[in-house]
UniProtKB/TrEMBL annotation:
<comment type="similarity">
    <text>Belongs to the AAA ATPase family. RarA/MGS1/WRNIP1 subfamily.</text>
</comment>
<keyword id="KW-0235">DNA replication</keyword>
<dbReference type="Pfam" id="PF00004">
    <property type="entry name" value="AAA"/>
</dbReference>
<dbReference type="GO" id="GO:0030174">
    <property type="term" value="P:regulation of DNA-templated DNA replication initiation"/>
</dbReference>
<dbReference type="GO" id="GO:0005634">
    <property type="term" value="C:nucleus"/>
</dbReference>
<keyword id="KW-0862">Zinc</keyword>
<dbReference type="InterPro" id="IPR003593">
    <property type="entry name" value="AAA+_ATPase"/>
</dbReference>
<dbReference type="GO" id="GO:0017116">
    <property type="term" value="F:single-stranded DNA helicase activity"/>
</dbReference>
<feature type="compositionally biased region" description="Gly residues">
    <location>
        <begin position="53"/>
        <end position="63"/>
    </location>
</feature>
<keyword id="KW-0378">Hydrolase</keyword>
<dbReference type="GO" id="GO:0005524">
    <property type="term" value="F:ATP binding"/>
</dbReference>
<keyword id="KW-0227">DNA damage</keyword>
<dbReference type="InterPro" id="IPR008921">
    <property type="entry name" value="DNA_pol3_clamp-load_cplx_C"/>
</dbReference>
<keyword id="KW-0547">Nucleotide-binding</keyword>
<protein>
    <recommendedName>
        <fullName>ATPase WRNIP1</fullName>
    </recommendedName>
</protein>
<dbReference type="GO" id="GO:0048471">
    <property type="term" value="C:perinuclear region of cytoplasm"/>
</dbReference>
<dbReference type="InterPro" id="IPR032423">
    <property type="entry name" value="AAA_assoc_2"/>
</dbReference>
Amino acid sequence: MEGSGAQDAPLVSCPVCLCELPATHINAHLDGCLQEQENAALRALGGRQQQQRGGGGAEGGQGPRWPPRPGPPASPESQAAALRGETLAQKLEGKPLADKLRPDALGDYVGQDQVLGEQTLLRSLLEAHEIPSLILWGPPGCGKTTLAHIIASNSKKNGTRFVTLSATSAKTNDVRDVIKQAENEKRLFKRKTILFIDEIHRFNKSQQDTFLPHVECGTVTLIGATTENPSFQVNSALLSRCRVIVLEKLSVEAMEVILKRAIKSLGIRMLGQDKQHTGSANGSNSKSSEPPVYIEEKAVSTLAFLCDGDARTALNGLQLAVQARLTAGQTSHQASTQGCSVDGVFITEDHVKEGLQRSHILYDRAGEEHYNCISALHKSMRGSDENASLYWLARMLEGGEDPLYVARRLVRFASEDIGMADPLALTQAVAAYQGCHFIGMPECEVILAQCVVYFARAPKSIEVYSAYSNVKACLRNHQGPLPPVPLHLRNAPTRLMKDLGYGKGYKYNPMYKEPVEQEYLPKELKGMDFFKGNKM
Ligand SMILES: Nc1ncnc2c1ncn2[C@@H]1O[C@H](COP(=O)(O)OP(=O)(O)OP(=O)(O)O)[C@@H](O)[C@H]1O
């Protein structure tokens, strides 16, 4: 009566393929199902890539990766070891260097000591495998996804599943599937699930609502990553159930550590200011038949400085600079041209700048370039040059400028340069600001472009701006105490104030049919015209 036993058994759904089947059949089914999934994953990814990505890791695909597979080489050192044996050009092929060198262990995570240093709560929780729901908030390339990776490989050690979704591509149904599988895993195998959602701010509030009850009841532990302020972008009910971890831009020193590690893993040799090898950063060259590749120490510090705390930009810049030099410099001996005592391919500060320019338009968000570009945009709009205006806008946005910074400047421009010539400009600018706030980059770029073209084409007037500047100058240049507010303009809410003459003689304009003769300025300023000579 085996058949009827199976029919009577309660139905359960397979945590892998989600099909419903009698509980008595689940084990046999799972064996086949897992084997099939394993084979499919191997076919799709190729053995080597899978090894790099690390079994049930946090990369890529939307479906859960289970069961945990043997992990990847754990540290950047061992990843470097895995890269050894290839030529430098081969090492730079395929996945971006930044991805290849993404650390998997907490000990290899650089910087962010304020949240991950010794004695911090998060570190203790990670070490104890107690992962609370987290929102990782920080600028691009500061290590949010990397931290999630580390949590993933850490949590694999105690059998916790780690599932990744990207809010840019995942649909609500994908979230539901993940939740369903997490419920099954919890029910059948008492296995916990951590759900990592990259760019969580891109989920709308109702999509975020989908996982709220499941975070609340512990079916999943949520780790969200966002570059946007979560107070505005994350559902407040969800936010209150998560610990917000604020990651900062990586410091120049941290960036140098990351870059030097990459240089070492590529087998590139580093030269100090005096063009001598700096021993510590040297890597072994991959193949002795290859010409040695050198990089100036100055080039590394410049790269670390220019990438504005974004490790991905820095590593991409390095990768492109090296690739470009390998292509251009295969036969060249740089020693004579650089005035130093080495033969081989030589990477200088200019080469890395060029590499950075290609990978990420060179734009120092914190430095002079930021002010230069915003000034060029302002002046181009003032000069009614719509082409130049768009060009400077794109230079900033493509360089990674915060769109809200540009939008704030447009609000200012609307009053300073267009003013009363087209008062609607201010409405346009505020609408553009809000639009950018709602949808973020890259979608908001066209909102800013529209506003910039509107402003370039708009009539201009600095009448109000100049008049207000004159008022400020008048106040600043006033000698002695400022004149009192005329009594007739003062409000008189109490008897005493009335008795003191407050409001006395004030002419309430609506009571008069004819124009009212009345002074509104202090008597010392009688007849002052702040607009005189300023009409535009
Ligand atoms: N703290 C860090 N320590 C070591 N390497 C890091 C660190 N942060 C970033 N990296 C390197 O930079 C790359 C990009 O970082 P990551 O993907 O974690 O950035 P992110 O903050 O998630 O950025 P985004 O918001 O753009 O997705 C990683 O693959 C890794 O190689």
